[in-house]
Q: What sequence folds into this?
């Protein structure tokens, strides 16, 4: 019986297609693929975004700046929440966690990500958000 429910859940999840129509969930255990992204079951590494849904640890807080040290950020433009790279929900989340000004969608990307969307809620221009990791320090030769 349990196997039938798991298989039925997997078929339902595959039939849904996009994250907006995925089955509702409250936690990762509610989803056939073991990944709940902000209330919807989602596929880990969906649409070629290898960091979407992967395991992560929140970046440590830098003692110098008091902000997250993004050199250890595995999530790119996604947020490390509950030890998985997940979608952002608000601009405030992006500013506080990654220093990115907005939370929006990028065509062809799963979920919502942090970036500079020039004040647009959904980024209809299709530009990918910038990589939020800081560049390595320059060395003089």
A:
């Amino acid at each position: 019986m349990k196997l039938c429910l798991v298989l039925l859940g997997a078929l339902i999840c595959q039939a849904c297609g996009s994250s907006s129509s995925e089955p509702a969930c409250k936690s990762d255990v509610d989803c056939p693929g073991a990944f709940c992204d902000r209330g919807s079951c989602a596929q880990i590494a969906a649409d070629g975004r290898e960091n979407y849904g992967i395991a992560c640890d929140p970046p440590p807080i830098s003692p110098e700046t008091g902000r997250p040290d993004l050199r250890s950020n595995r999530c790119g433009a996604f947020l490390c929440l509950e030890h998985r790279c997940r979608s952002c929900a608000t601009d405030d989340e992006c500013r506080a966690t990654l220093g990115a000004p907005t939370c929006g969608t990028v065509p062809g990307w799963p979920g919502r990500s942090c970036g500079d969307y020039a004040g647009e809620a959904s980024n209809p221009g299709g530009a990918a958000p910038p990589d939020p990791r800081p560049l390595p320090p320059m060395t003089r030769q």
